[in-house]
Write a structure and sequence with these properties.
95 residues, mainly alpha, 82% helix
Amino acid sequence: MLAVIAFPVAILIARRSGAVSLLQAVYSFPLPILLGVLAIQQARRARERIERTLGRAGGAGQARWGRRLGVLGIGIGVAGGLALGFYALLAGYSG
């Protein structure tokens, strides 16, 4: 879940405080990507444990949601990186 909320929280902090600009907050895009990859790895490990114990360990639904949220976090991070890249491209052409 941290992967999903990391980028929006950075944007919210930038909007609320004058210390960080919105452009500087967009530089936090690698954080959700990293957290998303970690979530997917943990979900994979959980599924392997569930298979080893023939389902007695429980947590199949949690592993499934962890993977989904990890993929969503990676998508949010990639979207933030693309936004930063296009902003830099447009700023380079405008001035």
